[in-house]
Design a protein that fits this description.
Length: 351
């Protein structure tokens, strides 16, 4: 039988492992094995993107949501939340603030609603005409193909829609009946057809997830080949049906980031806010595990506490440039550099 390191070495080089080998890599990791995996993943990231980490300004445009995800504080059934939606002007101003700090990549994220399509198209058009060198990423949930097309035509470059779990039965345990695995998959396919750089992704340690499901995540991503993958630990939120579930492990999240980096060498992989919210060194540990994107918050301050996806969410950002300087210093201390350009996936750079 091959050793743990032999399986990892082979996977990093050839992106091949059996299901039972993947499960073994996940189930039998220990601090030393994690360190080894992170080292291999880092090498793969550096070969493709050097020591640069792309910085994107995150604007949490609205916490209104029709979704009912059992894990998320923004779910429509949660009455214990102050709902807000930024105006067009507030969104554009937030992006301009990021632009003045040097950011050339913004992410507009929010709950899923169906009454904002024209507003979003107009905001994207506005950002693109005022700041043509800025890449715009949207993350606004499941929408009709026509809506995705409208936003793409308005100038949106990328779309983040985590698949949440690659296992259909598991998906059904995390969501109410009205939310369908197949619809999520259809949305991902539509986004790809429209030419978006698409981001999939999943939580680590979500309720009912075991090593079987995590191994399947790697297999699913090898098949889908998404340009971006968001991976963060599950963190409970007090007003959800999963309030009393265990939080996801930081170490297991780092291992999954490393395995995904090996599986998809060129992918854009953020060191997520959920990771930074779970560990004081979470941001840099994510980068050292092979992540190459960070998304500091540039939402106007007065709204931040209301974007309560999970408890204890970190919301410090780049406001007043101070946060950005701190980010640059933290990355510098581990030998990396914040890159403020559009930050496209390698395969999309020449387009
Ligand atoms: N509504 C959009 C959607 O669902 O795609 C975008 C916003 S949603 C808040 C962004 C991501 O947050 C989700 O894809 C999910 O993986 C993550 N998330 C939600 N609740 C979480 C929790 N309790 N812990 C960690 N991540 C969570
Ligand atoms: Fe809504 Fe997204 Fe939260 Fe689900 S994860 S409840 S769709 S904001």
């Amino acid at each position: 039988m091959s050793s743990y390191r032999e399986i990892l070495d082979w996977f990093a080089l050839h992106r091949e492992a059996s299901h039972s080998e993947l499960e073994r890599l996940i189930a039998t990791a220990d601090p030393e094995r994690l360190d080894y995996a992170m080292g291999l993943a880092r090498e793969v990231a550096v070969q493709n993107y050097g020591h640069g980490v792309f910085v994107r300004g995150l604007v949490e445009v609205s916490n209104r949501c029709v979704g009912g995800c059992y894990y998320c504080g923004l779910r429509t059934e949660n009455r214990n939340i102050n709902r807000y939606a930024l105006s067009e002007e507030e969104i554009v101003e937030a992006c301009k603030g990021g632009y003045e700090l040097g950011l050339r990549s913004v992410v507009l994220q929010g709950g899923e609603v169906y009454d904002m399509s024209q507003k979003v198209a107009s905001v994207v058009g506005n950002i693109k005409s005022l700041m043509p060198d800025v890449a715009v990423t949207l993350s606004l949930g499941e929408q009709d193909a026509e809506v995705y097309e409208l936003w793409r035509k308005a100038g949106a470059d990328r779309y983040l829609l985590r698949h949440e779990t690659a296992t259909k039965g598991h998906y059904a345990r995390l969501h109410p009946e009205r939310m369908r695995y197949d619809n999520r998959q259809r949305c991902l396919a539509n986004l790809k057809t429209l030419g978006y750089q698409v981001g999939a992704g999943f939580m680590v340690g979500s309720p009912f997830q075991g090593t079987e499901e995590l191994a399947h995540e790697i297999e699913y991503l090898l098949g889908l080949q998404p340009p971006m993958v968001g991976i963060g630990p599950y963190i409970p939120q007090c007003d959800t049906p999963f309030a009393n579930q265990k939080r996801g492990s930081v170490e297991r999240t780092l291992l999954m980031v490393s395995l995904v980096r090996m599986a998809l060498p060129k992918a854009l992989i953020p060191s997520t806010t959920a990771l930074a919210s779970s560990d004081a060194q979470g941001m840099t540990r994510g980068v050292l595990a092979g992540a190459n994107v960070v998304m500091p918050n540039i939402t106007p301050h007065k709204y931040r506490a209301d974007y309560a996806i999970y408890d204890g969410k970190k919301s410090s950002g780049t406001e007043a440039g101070e946060g950005l300087r701190q980010l640059q210093a933290e990355l510098g201390a581990i030998g990396y550099e914040a890159v403020l350009t559009r930050g496209d996936h390698l395969d999309f750079m020449k387009r």
